[in-house]
């Protein structure tokens, strides 16, 4: 997308002297005109630092980049991951929004695996098992962990625990207090070669006594069977689904166990509804398109180095960690699909935390720091706890923070002055249901993909995670006293680790 910076700079310069509060005052209809809704998901962009003329430029960029065609190609199963020559058909896991032969074939495979998931959930429900340990990392952990933490209910048939870190303290903490006789484990690994998952799987298999109550989700069933997991307890994955886009597949087995198959399917329905919206909505009414253009405006127009995501709902406290992988592993690239270096900045650092806790930790920097940090605030209109005063306070803080960041406040005392002019988007869910959460996650998946299209990078590979793993496997023998590290600093640190001196 050549000339992205140039296309934005004229508007950034034109608006440089007009604070957000003035933009808002100058356009009374803005709060309505810059808002979109898709079912239970409402998004308001009125506190972003652009005006209608800048938006016209952004949507012209969307037209030139053929974002509508890009979404069609994604959903139809075209090769949108060219460096690995693969489609990215996570949409086929949750519905048949596209009718291409490949998408329909993928959909059929997904449906047949969901039937097997249902059978396994029913079989486990009829067993003495009460606890499930889900063993996986990255895309094989963050999605299920987020959804289970958000939606699991205390009276559920199973308690699901997540084990990801190779640090033995994680396994120790997860297994403490569990009864091997009433526990089953699910090893989730697309490659079934991930060091952390294999090591943790070995700990859990030894702790269980055997692999009789172990299940696996992988694109390489034969590797799971070699680990000792019986074929009838292995659920398949496919290469046409990227790890960080895979919670809708059998990677969601822990979700189905924690929430029940019906609520897992409702999660899929919500995502499928957003897929249909993304495919059919005109660009100007298209939620992920508008969000992606706003991200590009903030990153390449305002040159913001980071982006905060601030869920004002305790049940979404893991959303920032989930989005960190989705965004930074998809968009953390500096080489375009054609092999040339990118001409503009790509992924900002995505970070965040749950409100209102965050107001008592990093909001000082958001209000008075030197960096402008665009923020996605996420609220849920209807609570599920019955503490009305708390919910009113939560929503009041949500609205107050977005207003204070936008408008600031002057003061004679420079230390008490709020510069304001800090942009944010407000996302509201009617209620935190499986459908709404599925829709929200799919919304971010499509926005990330569209940002990649605008930056001409590949959202679906992740070669950058390999070098560290290769070095670690080379250092293992040296840590165990055999051989030396090639790097002199590493060698010195090895000595300290080995001798404690
Ligand atoms: O599912 P696995 O093959 O075990 O991979 C687990 C994770 O490791 C990789 O290094 C990447 O960081 C992730 O994209 C992936 O989800």
From TrEMBL:
CC per GO annotation: cytosol
One Pfam family of this chain: PGI
EC number: 5.3.1.9
Pathway listed: Carbohydrate degradation; glycolysis; D-glyceraldehyde 3-phosphate and glycerone phosphate from D-glucose: step 2/4; Carbohydrate biosynthesis; gluconeogenesis
Keyword field: Cytoplasm, Gluconeogenesis, Glycolysis, Isomerase
Domain of life (superkingdom): Bacteria
Compartments it resides in: Cytoplasm
InterPro entries: G6P_Isomerase, G6P_Isomerase_C, Phosphoglucose_isomerase_CS, SIS_dom_sf, SIS_PGI_1, SIS_PGI_2
Catalytic activity: alpha-D-glucose 6-phosphate = beta-D-fructose 6-phosphate
PANTHER family for the chain: GLUCOSE-6-PHOSPHATE ISOMERASE (PTHR11469)
Function: Catalyzes the reversible isomerization of glucose-6-phosphate to fructose-6-phosphate.
HAMAP family, sorted: G6P_isomerase
Official protein name in the record: Glucose-6-phosphate isomerase
Species, as recorded: Thermomonas hydrothermalis
Gene this chain is encoded by: pgi
């Amino acid at each position: 997308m050549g000339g992205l910076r140039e296309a934005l700079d004229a508007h950034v310069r034109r608006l440089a002297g007009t604070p957000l509060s003035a933009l808002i005052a100058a356009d009374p209809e803005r709060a309505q005109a810059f808002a979109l809704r898709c079912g239970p998901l409402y998004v308001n962009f009125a506190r972003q630092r652009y005006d209608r003329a800048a938006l016209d430029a952004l949507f012209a960029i969307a037209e030139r980049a053929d974002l509508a065609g890009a979404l069609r190609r994604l959903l139809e199963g075209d090769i949108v991951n060219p460096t690995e020559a693969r489609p990215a058909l996570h949409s086929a896991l949750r519905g048949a929004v596209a009718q291409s032969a490949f998408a329909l074939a993928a959909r059929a495979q997904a449906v047949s695996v969901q039937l097997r998931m249902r059978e396994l959930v029913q079989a486990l429900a009829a067993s003495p098992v009460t606890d499930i340990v889900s063993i996986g990392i990255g895309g094989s952990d963050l999605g299920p962990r987020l959804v289970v933490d958000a939606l699991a209910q205390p009276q559920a048939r199973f308690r699901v625990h997540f084990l990801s870190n190779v640090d033995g303290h994680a396994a120790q903490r997860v297994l403490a207090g569990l009864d091997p006789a009433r526990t089953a484990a699910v090893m989730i690994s697309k490659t079934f070669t991930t060091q952390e998952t294999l090591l943790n799987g070995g700990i859990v298999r030894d702790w269980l006594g055997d692999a009789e109550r172990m299940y696996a989700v992988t694109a390489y069933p034969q590797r799971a069977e070699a680990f000792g997991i019986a074929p009838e307890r292995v659920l398949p994955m496919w290469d046409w689904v990227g790890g960080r886009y895979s919670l809708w597949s059998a990677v969601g087995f822990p979700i189905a166990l924690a929430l029940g198959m019906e609520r897992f399917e409702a999660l899929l329905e919500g995502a499928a509804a957003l897929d249909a919206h993304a495919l059919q909505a005109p660009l100007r009414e298209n939620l992920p398109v508008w969000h992606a253009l706003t991200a590009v405006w903030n990153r390449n127009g305002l040159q913001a180095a980071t982006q905060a995501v601030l869920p004002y709902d305790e049940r979404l406290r893991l959303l920032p960690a989930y989005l960190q992988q989705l965004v930074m592993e998809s968009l953390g690239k500096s080489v375009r699909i054609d092999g040339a270096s990118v001409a503009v900045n790509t992924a900002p650092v995505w970070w965040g935390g749950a409100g209102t806790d965050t107001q008592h930790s990093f909001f000082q920097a958001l209000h008075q720091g030197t960096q402008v940090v665009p923020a996605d605030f996420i609220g849920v209109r209807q609570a599920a706890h019955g503490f009305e005063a708390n919910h009113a306070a939560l929503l009041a803080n949500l609205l107050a923070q977005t207003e204070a960041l936008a408008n600031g406040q002057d003061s004679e005392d420079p230390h008490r002055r709020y510069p304001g002019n800090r942009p944010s988007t407000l996302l509201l869910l009617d209620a935190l249901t499986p459908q709404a959460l599925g829709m929200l996650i799919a919304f971010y998946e499509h926005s990330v993909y569209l940002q990649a299209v605008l930056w001409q990078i590949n959202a679906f590979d992740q070669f950058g995670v390999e070098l560290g793993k290769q070095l670690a496997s080379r250092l293992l023998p040296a840590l165990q006293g055999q051989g030396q590290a090639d790097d002199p600093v590493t060698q010195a640190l090895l000595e300290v680790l080995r001798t404690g001196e």
